[in-house]
Amino acid sequence: MSEMTLQYAPTEESVATSYLDEGHTVLSWLLTTDHKRIAILYALSITAFFFIGGVAIGLVRLELISPTGWFMTSDEYNRAFTIHGIIMVWFFLVPSIPATMGNFVLPMMIGAPDVAFPRLNLLSWYLYLIGASFTVYVLLSGGVDTGWTFYPPFSSTYSHSSVVPAAIGVFVVGFSSIATGVNFMATVHLLRAPGMTWFRLPLFAWSMYVVSMVMVLATPVLAMSLLLICAERLFGLPIFDASVGGDPVLFQHLFWFYSHPAVYIMILPAMGVVSEVFACFARRRVFGYAFMVYALLTIGVVGFMVWGHHMFVAGQSPLANLIFSFLSFIVAVPSAIKVFNWTATLYRGQIGFEAPMLYALGFLGLFTIGGLTGLFLASVPIDIAATDSYFVVAHFHTIMVGGTVSAFMAGIHYWWPKVTGRRYHEFAAQLAAIAMFLGFNLTFIPQFIMGWLGMPRRYHFYPDVFQIWHVLSSGGAAMLAVAYLMPLGYLGWSLFNGDRAGDNPWGATGLEWQTPSPPPKRNFLRPPQVTSAPYQYHDIGRAREEVEQAPVEGRGDAR
């Protein structure tokens, strides 16, 4: 059943010297260079910021229950949705999968003892924590009212809020992304195990490699854009402010040249996660592995060429609009290939509906909806009609939040037994996965309808005719909040009371599943030797009951 042939057997000694046993003091964690501990530090930080951003949008959804608002001023409303946007995009969605699962799993997947630059890895977490904490402090103490995009003229002329400090914090976090990208690229190039050729890499490793290239090439453009905003506000330079000779459309070009590739920084890792989960729980090799690799590479390259579809109403020439529209349809092709190949992987598979699979299936549904509605917005006439409406909000959240968060949760549940050595309560996890999918659709399908009917986004007050849709959306958001909180309960419980998971509770292939759970500090006792292609689930008839350690009655079945 195993994908790889390893040159060692796990021992009790290796389990006793897991990465969790290398010192329990706070200082030992803050100074660690172990990629697994750094992944956990990232996970704790990202989770904290996620819930801060979630509280902000929860207040916004409560406010929008009434057409005239009922506890916020318009300025407070603007600051609340800006807090949500900045935190969720820059401090959660972008680093969520690469910084956590990428850090923890990638070196083990390729047979490496650690990342190529362990100290740089620790520095990247400190940069992330310092920059994000500084920005969140600014957002909570004074606030920013420009929206997460920092668009001029809001950020250059009209806003009297703390734009510069917030932009500086995001600027610092950008260096964390660059450091992580450089580290992952070097790790994949230099530290692959003997026999681990490029086309024996798991798809998650491929997704981390492609997203690292995007982070390294695109993030400096965002940094430059934010520095120019700061220079304009601090020194009065005529860069983006049209009233003194600047060009606000220039900022949009710079911003979206980064921010559309950033969409793929969020979604490409999600594609890698669900590829691992689908193969494992369908007990089948990923259909069209080579096409899946080339689709990842194509998305990474073509994603740099479509930024202009965010600017169809910004004054571009009709020819530019036509070119960007065409390229936007082109970039949908490799995404469609991945959807078809995932579906073919599932076809006639021996599918199990454990929690990771339910989250992955939720990703497939939401990603497909988000991708199809993206084609609407790639069409110039429809985009002009739908620009700055709730249709855009629903599209963005469906593919970015619904897709990325579903894959993030799938990955957490899939690799949780490996990270902790413990099982969680399976029924509670399945319930949370279903609640998240239903809550997400109840939140954003009304927003698709509102947008199609002409409801503008970001408006504090709105016509009474849209109230029913806002009430439904807010109800869905409450359900979604419960679905997000549930894993904190049962995963936290599992740390102390969960059953022992065994080294490979899913019967999965891949090097990371051939190490003890939790893994030893250096991942492998001896360097592994790779002898076959990934996802060799050839022994498909093996009964699931034979996969390690049946559950104890009353505990979750993590098989």
Automatic annotation (TrEMBL):
GO cellular component: membrane
Keyword annotations from UniProtKB, A to Z: Electron transport, Heme, Iron, Membrane, Metal-binding, Respiratory chain, Transmembrane, Transmembrane helix, Transport
SUPFAM superfamilies attached to this UniProt entry: Cytochrome c oxidase subunit I-like
Membrane spanning stretches: 39-60, 80-105, 125-144, 164-191, 203-235, 255-274, 286-307, 319-337, 358-378, 390-415, 427-449, 469-491
The keyword ATP-binding is annotated on this UniProt entry: no
Entry's localization field: Membrane
InterPro entries to which the protein is assigned, alphabetical: Cyt_c_oxase-like_su1_dom, Cyt_c_oxase-like_su1_sf, Cyt_C_Oxase_1, Cyt_c_Oxase_su1_BS
Limits of the Cytochrome oxidase subunit I profile domain: 23-531
GO biological process terms held by the UniProt record: aerobic respiration; electron transport coupled proton transport; respiratory electron transport chain
Residue ranges of the region described as Disordered: 507-559
Membrane topology: Multi-pass membrane protein
Molecular function, one GO term: cytochrome-c oxidase activity
Family from the record: Belongs to the heme-copper respiratory oxidase family.
Name used for this protein in its record: Cytochrome C oxidase subunit I
